[in-house]
Amino acid sequence: MHSPYSTPPRRLGALRNVQYRCAYPGVEESVSAARDRLAKAVAASGLDQDTADTAALCLSEIATNAVVHAIGHQTRPRFIVAVSIFGCRQRVLRFEVHDPDAEHQPTFPAKEHATCLMLEHADEATSGRGLAMVAALADRTGVEVGPAWKCVWFELRVDEHALGRPLPDVPERAAECSTGEATPAA
Question: What are the CA-CA distances from residue 96 to residues 60, 77, 79, 119, 172 (Å)?
Answer without folding.
Answer: 11, 17, 10, 26, 42
